[in-house]
Amino acid sequence: MTLVQAACLADALEAGYGILAQGGPAVAAVESTIGLLEQSGLFNAGRGANRQLDGVQRMDAAIMEGAHLEAGAVASIEGILHPITAARLVLEETDHVLLVGPLASRFARHFKLDRHRSTGVPRRLSYGRILARQRCSTTERYGTVGTVALDRSGTVAAGASTGGIESMLPGRVGDSPLIGCGVYADNHSGAVSMTGMGEGIIRLVIAKSICDRLAMGKSPAVAAGQVLRMLVSRIRGSAGAVVLSPDGRFAIRHVTPHMAAGWWNGIGLPTVRGEFL
Ligand code: ASP
Questions:
Q1: How remote is the CA of residue 84 from the centroid of ligand 1, in Å?
Q2: Residue 162 Cα, ligand 1 centroid: separation in angstroms?
Q3: Active-site entry in 144, 147, 162, 195
Q4: CA-based nearest residue to 99, from 70, 66, 77
Q5: C-alpha of 255 from chain center
Q6: Are strands 156-162 and 183-186 parallel, antiparallel or unpaired?
Q7: Domains of the chain, residue spans
Q8: 43 lines ligand 1 (CB under 6 A)
Q9: Does 3-117+128-273 carry CATH code 3.60.20.30?
Q10: Is the dihedral of CA 206, 190, 67, 106 positive or negative?
Q11: Which H, E and C letters describe the chain, residue by residue?
Q12: Distance 142 CA to ligand 1 centre (A)
């Protein structure tokens, strides 16, 4: 993690906590924290989103609150600076949970969300070459941005926003917009936001699996540790989790080499580190 990224994470934590300190809802804190990171261009989300193998940025995001289990998400959205806001609009303005592709972008434009003009040029590659490139990809770098928050009313919320992974096929959707996979929040268990290789996170429904363990009385650290170890042992997956229980206990755990993350409860300065091992 660079110093600039660390400073940006600390600013985002302060912005989110500021909303909670004024009595604002956890979903607003999550949206604001993630929005700053999307805006920064320093992470794999919003302005800084990865490109798919045809050169186009297609982004995924989700947000969920734990009082009524309301959730909203967008997948494969293009040209929008804040996919997390589009996800919150799905939660608040529709009866649906997930909108995808160009019609998710159209939905966001209807609400006049800030646009993001991608600077890259779409690549004219044959599908055969795209498939070949995807097969020989070996990189494992993640940078999804995610947040969990607990507000004064005792409601938890979780969110995530991402440009996906390196070397992905056009149209690939990861775990982040899939409720229960990349994100989950329930006041009866807790809130979880994931980063890492989405395919593994989806196959083990990781966010909900961690919440189920919280509901059984495990601490955030134990719940996250057990599920992440299972991800490695069963399918050699790779991920990190931020986990918060409704009583305010939290854990940041990863089985990736690094995970830039932080936390703040309004006392002193925000804690930001590049790994939590
Ligand atoms: N989980 C994201 C995805 O698979 C990638 C990331 O965490 O950076 O789309």
A1: 15
A2: 6
A3: 144
A4: 77
A5: 17
A6: unpaired
A7: 3-117+128-273
A8: no
A9: yes
A10: negative
A11: CCHHHHHHHHHHHHHHHHHHHCCCCHHHHHHHHHHHHHHHCCCCCHHHCCCCCCCCCCEEEEEEECCCCCEEEEEEECCECCHHHHHHHHHHHCCCCEEEHHHHHHHHHHCCCCECCCCCCCCCCCHHHHHHHHHCCCCCCCCCEEEEEECCCCCEEEEEEECCCCCCCCCCCCCCCCECCCEEEECCCEEEEEEECHHHHHHCCHHHHHHHHHHCCCCHHHHHHHHHHHHHHHHCCCEEEEEECCCCCEEEEECCCCCCEEECCCCCCCEEECCCC
A12: 6
Q: Is 165 in the pocket of ligand 1 (CB under 6 A)?
A: yes
For residue 17 and ligand 1, the question of a CB distance below 6 A is answered with no
Per-residue pLDDT reduced to its tens digit, 179-218? 999 999 999 999 999 999 999 999 999 999 999 999 999 9
State yes or no: pLDDT of 138 exceeds 60: no
pLDDT band at 48 (very low <50, low <70, confident <90, very high): very high
Q: Give yes or no for residue 76 CB within 6 A of ligand 1.
A: no
Name the residue among 262, 248, 251 with its Cα closest to residue 10: 262
State which ligand 1 atom lies nearest to the alpha carbon of 146: 7
